[in-house]
C-alpha cells in the first residue's frame, strides 16, 4: 500500500500538551515537514523558548536546547557560528521574542545571523495565564490590561516583521497565519523558504505566524480562528516583508 | 619556552587559546576589556569565533549555546557585567555545561568604581544567580597564573562539566609581568552530550526545565553529589610560614602577594606571622585551613572588601581561633598598613 500521509520524521511520538484549538500543533508540524522535505533533520538544532512551547524539545526529533526567556537568538548565534553547517531554528512566542528578548532578536537580525526564527504571535501570554503581550491589540482585554489595552497606558502593539525587515542583516522576513488551509500552505512555503535562505547563508530569516489562544482569549476554537481573520490580520498584515533572493 | 612580557588580561586570554578555547562572547567593561580585544585579534586567525554581544545577557547566553556544542568557550567581564550574567550562569550550571567565566573585578555596589576590589566574593562563591548551585572559582595572583589558571580552568570545567570562574582583581588584569607561555593543550575530553546535529545517533537535548518536583530534587541531588566530589578533590591553597605562626593572614589574589611582604616584615620585628592563601575560592580550602588552625592563635582576613571571605574562614576554623578583618574597598591595602595591623594585634594580644 502506498503511504500518502504520515507523521513527519522530525516530530517525536510525544503527545502535544497544547490546548484544544491552539495552533502551535499546526506550526510544529509545518516546521517538521520542512525539515523532512529539505532532508536537514540530522543537522537541525532547535532552540525552544520560555512560554507555551517551552516543551518543544520533547516534540522535535532533532538536537534541541531549552533557552532562558528571550535569549534563544543569542544561543543560536553562538551555535551557528561554531557549527556553520548546521541548521539553526528558534521557536519563540511574543513575550519571549518581542518583550524580554527584544534586544537579542534585534541584534541577531542586525548581525545577519544565519538562523531561522519561527515567531508565534498570539497577542497574549499563554503559559502564565493570559497577561498582556507586547503584541496585544489595542482594546484587547487581558488579565494585566483588564480595561482593554490603551495606547495612553500600554502603548502600541509591536510589529516585529516590519521592525526587523528594516535591518540590513535580515534576508527573509514573512508574516503568515494558520487560520485556514490556504494560509497554512502559505505559511509552510515561507518556513521552507526561510530555511533555504539560511542554508544559502544570505542572512537572518524569520517567519512570524499569527496564532490562536482560545483558552486565554476566552473563545471557542472556531471563534478564535475568526478573531485572527477579523482583528489580527488587519493590524498585522500577512505577506513577505523582505526577501534577499528577490 | 622563553619568557614574554605580558599584561595579565592578555596572559589569561593567551592561556585560554592554549587550552583550546575557540569561542569568546563578551561585552566591553573596564578593567576586563583587553581580554575581549585580544580574542578579537586572535580567534579569527585560528579558526575560532569572536562575537561582541549586544549585552552581558546575550554574551553569557552565547556562552550557553557555544558550550552546548562541546567547544571550549568563555566570556570575561567585571562586577556590574557579572551581575547581568547571573541568569545565564544559573542555566549553565544546571545544564552542566563546561565554560570559563572571568571576573576582572572592581568595586561596587552599583556602578562603583574601576579600582581593583574583591567585593564580588559572595557572588562568585555562593552561586550568584537563582537556585542551588556552585561554580568553581580560582583566584590567580600574577600574570603567569592568569595564564595557567585559564588552562587549568578549562580542564576542570570539562572534567566536572561545570562553569569555572576566574576571580582576578583589576590589578592582575593590568599588571605587566614576564610569563612563560605553555605548550598548547592536546588532550581533550569526549563530549557525547553535545548538540551538533543528530546524524548517526539519537537527538541530544540540553534542558534545565524540570516540572516534576521529584525529578527537580533528583537533579539537585545529582549536582550536589558532584559538588561533594569537587570539595573532596579540588581544594587548593598555599601556605607560607604557617607552621609556627601565632597570627595567620588569610588573603587571596593580589592581596596574598602584598600580604606576603607584610608577613616577612612582621617576622623581622619578632612577630610570628604566617600567610594562608586560598587559591580555590570555591571550594574553599577548609581542610588545609583546619590543619593550620590547630596551632594558630588568631587569623586576620585581609580583603579588598568590607569582609566577605572572612565568613568562609570562620566556617572553616569552627571557633578554634578568633578571626579578625582588615578590609578596605576601592583602595588596596599596602604592605606597610598590614604590617602595622599585625604588630598592633601582636602587642594587644601579647604574642
Describe this protein's structure:
The complex is a heterodimer of chains A (246) and B (351). Chain A is of the alpha/beta class. Chain A has one domain: Thiamin diphosphate (ThDP)-binding fold, Pyr/PP domains (Rossmann fold, 3-Layer(aba) Sandwich). Helices cover 37% and strands 17% of the residues of chain A. Chain A has 9 helices and 7 strands. Chain A has a 7-stranded mixed sheet with strand order 2-1-3-4-6-5-7, with helices on both faces. In chain A, strand 5 (170-177), helix 7 (181-200) and strand 6 (204-210) form a beta-alpha-beta unit. In chain A, helix 1 crosses helix 7 (181-200) and helix 3 (94-100) crosses helix 4. Chain A is globular, with a radius of gyration of 17 Å. The relative contact order of chain A is 0.15. The model of chain A has no long low-confidence stretch (mean pLDDT 97). With 351 residues, chain B is of the alpha/beta class. Chain B has 2 domains: 4-233, Thiamin diphosphate (ThDP)-binding fold, Pyr/PP domains (Rossmann fold, 3-Layer(aba) Sandwich), CATH 3.40.50; 238-349, Rossmann fold (3-Layer(aba) Sandwich). In chain B, 42% of the residues lie in helices and 19% in strands. Chain B has helices spanning 8-18, 33-42, 56-68, 79-95, 121-125, 143-160, 170-174, 213-233, 254-268, 286-293, 309-317, 335-349; strands at 4-7, 23-26, 49-52, 73-77, 99-105, 136-138, 163-169, 176-179, 205-206, 237-240, 247-250, 273-278, 280-282, 298-303, 323-327. Chain B has a 7-stranded mixed sheet, with helices on both faces. In chain B, helix 1 (8-18) packs parallel to helix 6, helix 3 (56-68) runs parallel beside helix 4 (79-95) and helix 10 (286-293) packs across helix 11 (309-317). The longest helix of chain B has 21 residues, at 213-233. Chain B is globular. The N and C termini of chain B lie far apart (46 Å). The mean pLDDT of chain B is 97. Chain A binds chain B through residues 41-45, 47, 54-55, 57, 60-68, 71, 74-79, 81-83, 86-87, 103-104, 106-107, 111, and chain B through 22-23, 25, 49, 51, 53-55, 57-59, 61-66, 68-69, 71, 73, 87-88, 91, 195-200, 203-209. Strand 2 of chain A pairs parallel with strand 9 (205-206) of chain B, so a sheet runs across the interface.
Amino acid at each position: 500500500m502506498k503511504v500518502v500521509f504520515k507523521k513527519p520524521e522530525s516530530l517525536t511520538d510525544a503527545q502535544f500538551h497544547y490546548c484544544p484549538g491552539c495552533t502551535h500543533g499546526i506550526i510544529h508540524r509545518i516546521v517538521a515537514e520542512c525539515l523532512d522535505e529539505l532532508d536537514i533533520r540530522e543537522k537541525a538544532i532547535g532552540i525552544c523558548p520560555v512560554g507555551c512551547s517551552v516543551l518543544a524539545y520533547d516534540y522535535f526529533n532533532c538536537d534541541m536546547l531549552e533557552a532562558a526567556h528571550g535569549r534563544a537568538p543569542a544561543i543560536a548565534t553562538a551555535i551557528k557560528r561554531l557549527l556553520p553547517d548546521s541548521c539553526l531554528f528558534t521557536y519563540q512566542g511574543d513575550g519571549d521574542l518581542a518583550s524580554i528578548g527584544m534586544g537579542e532578536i534585534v541584534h541577531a537580525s542586525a548581525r545577519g545571523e544565519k538562523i531561522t526564527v519561527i515567531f508565534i504571535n498570539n497577542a497574549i501570554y499563554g503559559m502564565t495565564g493570559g497577561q498582556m503581550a507586547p503584541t496585544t491589540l489595542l482594546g484587547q482585554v487581558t488579565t494585566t490590561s483588564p480595561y482593554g489595552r490603551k495606547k495612553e497606558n500600554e502603548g502600541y502593539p509591536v510589529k516585529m516583521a516590519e521592525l526587523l525587515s528594516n535591518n540590513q542583516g535580515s534576508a527573509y522576513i514573512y508574516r503568515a497565519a494558520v487560520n485556514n488551509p490556504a494560509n497554512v500552505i502559505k505559511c509552510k512555503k515561507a518556513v521552507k523558504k526561510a530555511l533555504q535562505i539560511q542554508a544559502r547563508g544570505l542572512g537572518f530569516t524569520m517567519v512570524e505566524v499569527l496564532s490562536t489562544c482560545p483558552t486565554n482569549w476566552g473563545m471557542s476554537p472556531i471563534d478564535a480562528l475568526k478573531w485572527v481573520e477579523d482583528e489580527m490580520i488587519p493590524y498585522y498584515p500577512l505577506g513577505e516583508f523582505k526577501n534577499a533572493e528577490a | 619556552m622563553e619568557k614574554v612580557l605580558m599584561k595579565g588580561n592578555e596572559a589569561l586570554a593567551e592561556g585560554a587559546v592554549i587550552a583550546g578555547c575557540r569561542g569568546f562572547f563578551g561585552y566591553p567593561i573596564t578593567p576586563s576589556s583587553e581580554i575581549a580585544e585580544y580574542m578579537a585579534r586572535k580567534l579569527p586567525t585560528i579558526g575560532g569565533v569572536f562575537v561582541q554581544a549586544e549585552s552581558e545577557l546575550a554574551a553569557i547566553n552565547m556562552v550557553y549555546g557555544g558550550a552546548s556544542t562541546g567547544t571550549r568557550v568563555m566570556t570575561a567581564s567585571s562586577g556590574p557585567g557579572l551581575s547581568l550574567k547571573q541568569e545565564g550562569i544559573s542555566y549553565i550550571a544546571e545544564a552542566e555545561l563546561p565554560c570559563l567565566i572571568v571576573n576582572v573585578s572592581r568595586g561596587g555596589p552599583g556602578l562603583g568604581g574601576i579600582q581593583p576590589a574583591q567585593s564580588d566574593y559572595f557572588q562568585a562563591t555562593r552561586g550568584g544567580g537563582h537556585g542551588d548551585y556552585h561554580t568553581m572559582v580560582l583566584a590567580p595572583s600574577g600574570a603567569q597564573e592568569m595564564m595557567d589558571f585559564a588552562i587549568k580552568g578549562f580542564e576542570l570545567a570539562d572534567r566536572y562539566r561545570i562553569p569555572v570562574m576566574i576571580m582576578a582583581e583589576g590589578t592582575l588584569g593590568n599588571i605587566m609581568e614576564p610569563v612563560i607561555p605553555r605548550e598548547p593543550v592536546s588532550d581533550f575530553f569526549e563530549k557525547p552530550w553535545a548538540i551538533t546535529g543528530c546524524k548517526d545517533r539519537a537527538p541530544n537535548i540540553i534542558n534545565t526545565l524540570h516540572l516534576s518536583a521529584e525529578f527537580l530534587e533528583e537533579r539537585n541531588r545529582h549536582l550536589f553529589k558532584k559538588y561533594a566530589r569537587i570539595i573532596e578533590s579540588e581544594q587548593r591553597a598555599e601556605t607560607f610560614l604557617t607552621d609556627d605562626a601565632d597570627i595567620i593572614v588569610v588573603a587571596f589574589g593580589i592581596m596574598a602577594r602584598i600580604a606576603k611582604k607584610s608577613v616577612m616584615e612582621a617576622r623581622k620585628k619578632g612577630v610570628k606571622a604566617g600567610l594562608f592563601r586560598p587559591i580555590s575560592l570555591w571550594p574553599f580550602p577548609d581542610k588545609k585551613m583546619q590543619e593550620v588552625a590547630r596551632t594558630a592563635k588568631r587569623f586576620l582576613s585581609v580583603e579588598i572588601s568590607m569582609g566577605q571571605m572572612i565568613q568562609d574562614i570562620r566556617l572553616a576554623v569552627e571557633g578554634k581561633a578568633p578571626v579578625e578583618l582588615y578590609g578596605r574597598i576601592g583602595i588596596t591595602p599596602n604592605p606597610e598598613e598590614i604590617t602595622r595591623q599585625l604588630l598592633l594585634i601582636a602587642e594587644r594580644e601579647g604574642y
